Amino acid sequence: MASTSSSDRNKPYPESWEEVADLRVFRTDARDWDRLATWRQDMRKRGWKLLKVTSDEVELVAVFGRTKPDLNLTKS
After folding, report:
1. Contact 54/61 with Cβ under 8 angstroms?
2. 19 vs 8, which has greater pLDDT?
3. Are 52 and 13 in contact (CB under 8 A)?
4. To the nearest 5 percent, what fractions of the chain are helix, strand and coil?
5. How confident is the model over 41-64, as pLDDT tens digits?
């Protein structure tokens, strides 16, 4: 089994994603993930996209992102 550093655990996505999107990391087990279908649908209605899902034997990690609307305005 591959070891993961604490930074990999805290940021299970490429660092470059932070430049273009607001990100949320959600951790749960697979059984609870299935139960949260309505919650995931609500996230999509609010503009969040499911960008990545990974899992190991114990935990499921989902990364949701929403594009930063003012990205071009802040880089002057």
Report:
1. yes
2. 19
3. yes
4. 35, 30, 35
5. 999 999 999 999 999 888 999 999
Return phi, psi of residue 51, to 5°. -95, -35
Alpha helix locations (H) across 1-76?
6-10, 17-20, 30-35, 37-45, 71-74
Encode pLDDT of 3-15 as tens digits. 444 456 778 999 9
Give yes or no for a contact between 59 and 26, defined as CB atoms under 8 angstroms apart: no
User: What value does the mean pLDDT take over residues 33-43?
Assistant: 91
**Which structure tokens are listed for 20?**
């273009």
Q: What angle do CA 52, 43, 54 make, to 5 degrees?
A: 20
Domain that holds residue 48: 11-68
CATH number at residue 58: 3.30.1660
The count of domains in the chain is: 1
0.85 surpassed by pTM: no
